[in-house]
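Re: duplicated header lines in exported structure tokens

Our pipeline writes sequence and tokens for each protein into one text file. With two proteins the header for the second block appears twice in some exports. Here is an export where it did not happen, for reference. First protein block:
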Amino acid sequence: MIGTTISHYRILEKLGEGGMGVVYKAHDTKLDRDVALKFLPPRFAASDSDKARFIQEAKAASSINHPNVCTIHDIREHGKELFIVMEYVEGKTLRDLPLGHLDDGTVLSYAIQIGEALQEAHAKGIVHRDIKADNIMLNTKGQIKVMDFGLAKLRGSLKLTRTTTTVGTLGYMSPEQIEGRDVDGRADLFSLGALFFEMLTGSLPFRGDHEASMMYSILNEEPQRLESFREDLSGDLQRIVDRALQKNPKDRYQTAADFVKDLRQLQQPAKDVAGGSRSSRGVTLGRRSRHILLAAAGVTVVTLVIVLYALFRPHQAIDSLAVLPFANVNANQSSEYLVDGITENLINRLSKISKLTVLARGTVYRYKGPDVDPLKTGRELGVRAVLTGKITQVGNDVVIGTELVDVMNGAHLWGEQYRRTLSDIFTLQEEIAQEISQQLRLRLTGEEQRQLTKRYTEDSDAYQLYLKGLFSWNKRMPEDLLKGIEYFKQAVAKDERYALAYVGLADSYTLLGNFNLLAPKDAFPKAKEASMKALTLDNTLGEAHASLAYAEMYYDWDGQAAEKEFKRAIELSPGHAMAYNWYALLLASKHRFEEAGLVRKRALELDPLSPSINIDAGIALYFERKYDGAIAQYQKTLELNNAFVAAYIPLGGAYVKKGMYKEAVDAFQRASMFSRGHPIAVAGLGYTYAMFKKRDEALTMLDVLLERRKEEYVSPYWIAVVYTGLGETDRTFEWLGKALSERDGYLIYLNAEPIFDSLRSDPRFTALVTKIGLEEGSVRKTSR
């Protein structure tokens, strides 16, 4: 679209996208001026009701001629698309200002201008119904412009609003809007009252930890007193706020003119004080405002510049987000897969945005529960914004309530309630992701826009099977991984072009192989086949590139190909924490420790509480022979989850290298207990006993492994580890040779593993390294 000419409008850039329109900046070549073009999104093009609503918006807004309203110039059609031509406003929204830190005179000026715009609209029978900080622009001349009458309703016209969502933004909504009753201009005045409160305090008057509690607060609770935020705010300001925010419309300001009149009465004394006299009316602003106004007569040019800069400096877009696990209102386990799936879908969609750090599932799901405080959680996680949600399944319908909160100041950025059928769940997730990106004030590339709304299947049954597979996969238990594989297979049977379901298959087989639950030959070829099938269907799927890379690294031992795929995965999916982590493991295995550290740093930024990523950070330190650092990292991981088997195993290995054999035995025994005797834990015990000069105990562990190998898969690599501890070099190379023939994935770490340092001078070790294709590193130089 950028660079094309439609009619006589040359498209210059994309400005943003909302629920009912995509907006571009364009140049009117006839009148030589910049304008804004608002297009109906393509997905709505087939709907007559949405087209009618779009035309209604244009007609409603074009009838308003006021300096504080964005002017509508024209409405046109381009092919099957409709678009509105409107005034291009250069500036920023009120959301970009330091709300709560503006002086009272500025707040009054803005509120009066908004009120006068509404006065004009209401006189023409138009109700805006979505007054909020994001819809109010401040142009470069300091003039207010009320934007987006996309939710306007002409009195007496057809009700063309979408029935599947609550119209408006929750934190600003009047009680009658929440209850779905007919509204008039008094609903806008309630919203203006909420915005006025926010401009004064930096917070919305009604608060809630989630959508339902916010609704309850608006319907039943009184807002906090202004003085609880700022002691200098006067009783006159409180009186105006109280009247604007009355629950019953009959008790509110009845017209915008009445609202503006009261605001002006507060503004007038301010002018008198600035001029050196005081009004006899006795209506005053707060103490802070009086001091500012008294000083205004003698303000210097330098001070004025500083004040203006503080007021109007651009605020950065929110660059980090935590999508907390959505709550399952039904408390029905049969719906849990859907609730988790929608949460994860939003995480994955938003993580495609390169300028936004979206914390990964592994971290945010540590905060799953009914009593989570979003602001506290957001501060603990170090993010700028938090998204929460509640999901209710009613038969074939899904009701989703969402709330987006600015962690820095507690401001309610956005909230919405949706009701959709399960078959329409795709559109719902796309809309939520788009709305969030808009509320975070992010400028997206064209490719990011496509990724945000991308669908991998149109079959709702296939999608639900995929979510069930994902739900099982996330449990990480053997029986659940196998169950997940069945769900993913059913999903691709429903839709053979479902690329994401093939990725699910690939990752399931990868875990089964990585956990030694299947032999490498039974796991990784299937993982590779599934990931390549996914890439055949969609070569832009970063997750599939990461899955393929892991198989190439762990099974093919093709480090060059794996590195290429990891880089491509990260390029396409910049929020894929595990892709960074796996890539860091590859780099560490090649002794490229500095590079590995930088890559893993990004993995930890995305998923700071992931036990797996924290453990792998310790393994990299272990490979560098920095055992104290590795031990500290493993212990940190166990603070996250003291039953995490994968932490006890390398912890035991690090203790052995430090000569702390009793501690090592304890670590491996814990690993064996929590894993129900996993062969790697048994091998770790055998190696430790051997190094601890307890040969009989070591041989007992070895016998256990050899017996179990007759009935199940036991990695020959780990049997070789025990023989290394026993000092039986020939048997060590015998079992390493078996690991080579079975393509044991652990061999990729052979050249970095400290356990084998004593073998590096042996020609058989060099030959083995060459066969595997590993590059010889300067291990001896780093040994300590």
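Second protein block, exported in the same file:
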Amino acid sequence: MSNLGHWVTSESLPVFRYTADQDYYPPARWDPLLDAATTRHWVHLGNRRITLVADNEGLSGLWDEYTGCRWLTEPSPHGTGITRVTTTDGTLSTAYAAGVPDSREFGPTFSRVTVADDGVTLSRTVLCPEGEQPWVLIRVRLTNTTDATCRLTVQEEWAAWPASIDLAFAGRTAEPVAVAAVEPVDGGLRAGPLGAPDDPATGGEYLILQRLGDGPVHAGWTGAARPVLTLDQSVDLPPRGEVTLHFRFGLDDGSPPGEAPDAAGPEALYAASLATLRGRLPTAHAPFAPQAAMEIPWHAALLTGGACRDGVLGGHTLNQGSAYAFRHGFNGAARDPLQHALPLVYLEPDLALSVLRNTCAWGSPDGDLPYMITGGKQPLNGPFRPSDQNLWALWLAAEYAAATGDLAAFAEPVSYHPVHSSEPVPLAENLRRQYHFFRDVIGRGRNGHVRIRNSDWNDLVIAECGVPHDRMIEEGESVLNSAMAAWVLPVYAALADQLDDHATAADARRFAEELRTAVASDWNGRWFRRAHAPGTRPIGDDDLWLEVQPWAILCGAATTEQSRQLLDTIDTALRTSPIGAVWRWSPTARHGRRTTEAERGAIWYALNMTLIWAAAEIRPELARDEWRRMSLAAHATAYPDVWEGTLSGPDAFASPLSDHPGRTWSLPDLGLSMQAYPVANLHSHAQPLLAYLRLLGVEPTASGELSVRGGGRFTSRVLTVQPDGSGTVRAAHKIRVRTRTGRIVTGQGVLTWDTAGGQTADRCDRATHHGAEPP
């Protein structure tokens, strides 16, 4: 459905084959708004340590966030990572050349370019090996299509162009790091160090380009502070035969020079990585969403590929990416890695826990979470002091516990950010302090709602309110965060009870009920108001703001009749885009007044996920249709010439009323533009995953159970859900599952239940079920 390429299956995995010749297809050129127009299209792929930025020019960049936001080699303006093969008839290159037939493919953790002439086919795959290797594996396969031996020279080229990036918002986005020296090692070259010799983080780090395998190579480099490294090898290619070469490029992780980093050899590592990848990616199938079969495993791969081991704070970071990280150099807001980790609870729960611990370690001993971690791994509140961030930590913790039963994890110590010089505390205590910070420091305003501070979920909400900034920060209230808290806090209370913190649990439930009552009072007969501002009418009384509405339904503030009426209104007023509901609607726009860009509304992944969730039981057809609109397929159908949304996307898309529909937002006066880096935002992968699970009724309950209703298929290493509501959970600890009939199955190990909600066979250790079907 995209004019730029199509999906295929390769290596038994979903792969996008890029088929456009960008120099001959004018719509391929696009405007980043802050930079010159370009035909470059790229995607981010990764393992749990390194990110490969692969593009349609056959070039690469490498990103690492272990010690800070940094490029190991920048992908722009020229890119790097090229294989050249010289024959007696000329040269084959994996770098794009206009008009030269080739095949360019983007896989879940690899990119591949294939080129050929009359005698030789060159296929080059750049793979992020499974695990936490800080380098990519390059596999070069040469095929002789003639009956004569071909003597070739194979050259592998990578640029050692490291660059750190830290809160850059104007001019150059990354500061180059000079490479002090290049030295030969067996089979390759080592460049560095990447920092000052006395820097404990980067002083001992080197980039390495190394041939893995037998055969002599000639190593060389050009340039000094920013060298380009090359390895040359002669190859005799037998008639109708094949030869495969392997290289690696990235951080030198101490593998012995001249030896393969994997004991079984590079080809075995290549095969094992793809086999492991196939085994860990989930599968999905639903008649209402045929796109899920391809997109669910794709989203899971790109979401987990955004993770990076954090060498400063511990655990893994899950930076939302896009312009925020890769252009401007920060990890924020704190809510983002937490919400991106939510679907990982059902895919790779160890990674979800690692992200929870890492983000909690951003904070201070009073329970506050900073708005961001800078590119240098320092906490910073900057222009925003949101009032919602603790809620996301409490939510992720409760969802993890409900799905895994792993209460022991909450007794393990978590450090606070080193700037606070504070002793670690158990994770349970860290979360308890966050709850009390939310309740006591953020607190509530005169109408009983959570204070808005200078932002809630919406960083620019105060600017949209039309109330003096300082007064809104002091006295403004967020109906949105009251509604969210009214759902989150009872779920967290269930966890607190399981941890024997009954006082916190009881307090959280009381607080949630008071907030639920306050939200219920803000029903205006058509929808729920957005916020309260001093000295003016409630915000959102005359216009509909989407973000608060699903939470009002989910927390129980909306009655059944109000929920149905509200979803009908949303269906009519906000679901005006082929790619999802828009954020905001003003009825005054129907009377000839020119609407502002804000009133036109963008399409936000995070908001439409909660809309799908809230509508799943009340208006299931609406929820399913909204998920289809959220899909990559829907965007490619509506905007077939737009790259963003084809494989990955931003955090939000512009509305159909915008002058650039299907693309994303830009604030050029501030030097901030998502359109300048409109892909690789993890919202575009995490939210479709979580929304699909919510369509199947997979969610934690206020009683501490895991609820599963069914309605579609989903299979991962830890959870299986069938359309009829039966399923399996694999949990090393005791959990409780509430089935679609209302019956509860309890146990650990392999917990299986049938369509009636009863435990089946003897596959679960110490399993019981109880309760009766609801009337």
